[in-house]
UniProtKB/TrEMBL annotation:
GO molecular function: zinc ion binding
Gene Ontology CC, one term: nucleus
Keywords: Metal-binding, Nucleus, Zinc, Zinc-finger
Transit peptide in keyword set: no
UniProt-recorded name of the protein: Protein FAR1-RELATED SEQUENCE
Leader peptide range in chain numbering: none
GO biological process, one term: regulation of DNA-templated transcription
Family: Belongs to the FHY3/FAR1 family.
Length: 762
């Protein structure tokens, strides 16, 4: 057998599979093993599973954000998950990822199973069914904080024997002169709650010289509830310089009875262990409390400590390495020296640096023009990013993404996001956006509701689609069709509610947690409820691309971050300058003799004019009928020729030229729709009313934005806008005037003359 040459660490595994006796591979799966296709990888893993004594099935797949193609696949043990009783949440799997060469390469492999491996078809192993001791602990409810429980370890005063078969954590932790844990962790140990398991493992770590933190959690694909948790050594991972990728951990799995059982345990550390840790530093004693959200939430940021009866501020984890602060501080100081509008802020928690926020002068000025609809992109959470980098992105007058601000987010707590949004207000002179696209995470929802109470929060499409795929994969095709029809094609709130209730009743989903959550948050993701809010036309059918594309990703090293960041930002701004040049130097062709087309060509940028022109041309394919009139108000039914199903209602007021359409295109995108234009043609209105040409879409949006707030804005907003406009204009004078001595003299004379006029008018 000949194995073709591949890059280092890669082997063409399918050759091996087909080359052995009876087609069965004798090669163990390993990271770096390469295949010609994903199907070849599945065949290889299937043969391996058959030889080892377990079955496999196809698990989750991942798609590229750029073109939607499948980028990686997981093949899992048939006992993965908990959707049916025979499954045990087995973690064994391989994941293959497509490379630029077109090969599929194993990039992740978990070999160990949490069940006995035996010939197919036999009953579950006996140890899966036997009962094991239950760790007991006391629970104290806190009435002042609704929906929150505090788990408190009681002082070791009660010396009565434990009930038969029950392990008492308070006795386990401090028995013996040395305070060593009497009961070592083992697979099968049972706890009443996840918190009790955490207390136990925390005490075990303290007694053995290592610290513990909360690791990954896993949720049910069916109802979203937490099914298992990992508690890891504090040196697990590499996100911080102090971490060394330690593999020690304890994983617990929720049982049908509501208890939690240790199903996986690794005790070996790859670093030295200290001596027994002191009470105030590690072990859970009477002065330590752990907060557990009633909805199964369990996060390290919720750890609070009580000293002398006073609660101390919650400890929060920080995902930003210490080196990044030094690097950014130097960068910020250099930027402030050359850009007087540069703003940055660092969150400080108990004397520790946490999240970072920054925006240069150009971004802050852009916010004064295009800060009405913004995207808070925290897509770093979708993968194991080394740096939790987030961006605030708007849409400029060319319909291009424009950077408004950036941040590094220390943790995913409400505190971090609240600080972030409040800092945004400080940097942007108190400007609140009309709408914001951000993730569905509860912490983000709470922060937006608190800081931007009047802002419409729309969920990120990639997150909604990912959760939909998980849920819909469990349902039949009939449900999927009805679900899409309900969510995408409902025209009124009543129509949506009726269709949603039909789904709940027909498929017996009234008690389904995911369906309940999605209905309660329908205003943040259902197109019907989003159309009435201005989102600058950001599509509801496709995800927003990352502003920096592939320049900044999980592998970006610290030494290259700033240079890549500035290169990506400059590329985007160069694209904007090109569109500015095209708008002022090129002219779109007129395709009708309508005066409104010429009016909008003079006003709009090229990109926005093309959108308007398309609507104008489409308006000729529609018929309009007056169906109601009372005084100055009239109502029209506008339908497409040859399609009675496509119809909309246009309401028009002759006294003030106000017009609305049931399609709500103007409310959502800021450009009049074909239905309104058809009614204008019927009424022989030859010019678009000025209040329906948004200044943010015009070719002069970069200037003159002060007029937009003269009537409705506050004095503070007006002053801030004037300052940003003047500062940006002055920067352009400086940039152009410093190109040569002659241009300097000209620019200086212009500014000097302007200064004299300003002085005379004072």
């Amino acid at each position: 057998m000949v194995i073709k040459a591949y890059p280092v660490g890669m082997v063409r595994a399918i050759d091996i599979v087909n080359g052995g006796d009876e087609g069965e591979s004798r090669v163990e799966p390993h990271v770096g093993l390469a295949f010609d296709s994903a199907d070849d990888a599945r065949e290889f893993y299937s043969l391996y599973a058959k030889r080892m004594g377990f079955k496999i099935r196809t698990g989750q797949l991942y798609r590229s954000r750029s073109n939607g193609s499948v980028s990686s696949r997981r093949y899992v043990c048939s006992k993965e998950g908990f959707q049916i009783n025979s499954r045990t949440g087995c973690p064994a799997f391989i994941r293959v990822q497509i490379r630029d060469s077109g090969k599929w390469v194993i990039d992740h492999f978990v070999k160990d199973h949490n069940h006995d491996i035996e010939p197919m078809g036999e009953t579950p192993p006996p140890f899966m069914l036997q009962k094991t001791p239950i760790v007991k602990n006391s629970i104290a409810d806190v009435t002042k904080r609704p929906k929150v429980k505090l788990l408190e370890e009681v002082e070791d005063e009660d010396r009565r024997p434990c009930p038969s078969g029950v392990i008492n954590v308070k006795r386990v932790k401090r028995e013996g002169d040395q305070g060593q844990s009497k009961v070592e962790p083992y697979v099968g140990l049972v706890f009443n709650s996840a918190n009790e398991a955490y207390q136990y493992y925390h005490a075990h770590g303290a007694n053995n010289g290592f610290r513990v933190r909360i690791g990954q959690l896993f949720r049910s694909k069916f109802d979203g509830s937490i099914t298992s948790r990992r508690f890891v050594c504090s040196k697990e991972g590499f996100q911080h310089p102090s971490r060394v990728g330690c593999g020690a951990y304890m994983r617990i799995k929720r049982q049908e009875s509501g208890t939690w059982v240790v199903d996986r345990l690794r005790e070996d550390h790859n670093h030295g262990l200290g001596t027994q840790m002191e009470d105030h530093k590690g072990s859970f004693n009477a002065s330590n409390k752990f907060i557990e959200e009633v909805n199964d939430g369990l996060e390290i940021k919720d750890l609070v400590t009580k000293y002398n009866g006073n609660l101390v501020k919650r400890w929060r984890e920080n995902h930003i390495g210490s080196d990044w602060y030094n690097m950014f501080l130097e960068y910020f100081q250099s930027k402030q020296a050359e850009d007087t509008g540069f703003f940055y802020a660092v969150e400080v928690n108990d004397g520790n640096c946490m999240s970072i926020f920054w925006a240069d002068g150009r971004s802050r000025y852009s916010c004064s023009q295009f800060g009405d609809a913004i995207v808070l992109d925290t897509s770093y959470k979708k993968s194991v990013y080394l740096v939790p980098f987030a961006t605030f992105v708007g849409v400029n007058h060319h319909k291009q993404p424009v950077l408004l601000a950036c941040a590094l987010i220390a943790d995913e707590s409400k505190e971090s996001y609240t600080w972030l949004l409040k800092t945004w207000l400080r940097a942007m002179s108190g400007r609140h956006p009309l709408s914001m696209i951000a993730d569905q995470d509860k912490a983000i929802q709470q922060a937006i509701a608190e800081v931007f109470p009047g802002t419409h929060h729309r969920f990120s499409l990639w997150q909604i689609k990912a959760k939909e795929r998980e849920f819909l994969s469990l349902m039949d095709n009939g449900f999927q069709c009805e679900y899409e029809k309900c969510t995408l094609h409902s025209q009124t709130a009543d129509e949506f509610d009726t269709a949603w209730n039909v789904l709940l009743n027909r498929y017996r989903l009234k008690e389904n947690v995911w369906m309940k959550e999605m209905y309660e948050s329908r205003a943040s993701w259902v197109p019907l409820h989003l159309r009435a809010t201005f989102f600058a036309g950001i599509s509801m059918n496709k995800s927003v691309d990352s502003f920096f594309g592939t320049l900044l990703n999980a592998q970006t090293p610290i030494v290259e971050f700033v240079s890549r960041y500035e290169r990506g930002l400059e590329q985007r701004r160069e694209e904007e300058r090109k569109e500015d040049s095209n708008t002022f130097n090129l002219q779109a062709f007129l395709q009708t003799k309508e005066p409104v087309e010429e009016q909008c060509r003079r006003s709009y940028t090229l990109t926005v004019f093309k959108i308007f022109q398309k609507e104008l041309l489409q308006s000729y394919s529609y018929l309009g009928f007056k169906i109601y009139k009372e005084g100055a108000n009239s109502r029209y039914l506008v339908r497409k020729c040859g399609n009675d199903n496509e119809k909309n209602i246009v309401t028009f007021c002759a006294s003030n030229l106000n017009v609305t359409c049931s399609c709500q295109m103007f409310e959502f995108e800021g450009v009049l729709c074909r239905h309104v234009l058809r009614v204008f043609q019927m009424l022989e209105i030859r010019e678009i009313p000025s209040h329906y040409i948004l200044h943010r879409w015009t070719r002069n949006a970069e200037y003159g934005t002060v007029h937009d707030v003269e009537s409705g804005g506050t004095s503070q907003e007006l002053k801030a806008l004037m300052q940003w406009s003047l500062r940006e204009t002055a920067c352009k004078y400086i940039e152009a005037g410093s190109a040569s001595l002659e241009k300097y003299k000209l620019a200086y004379e212009i500014m000097r003359e302007g200064g004299r006029k300003l002085f005379w008018q004072r």
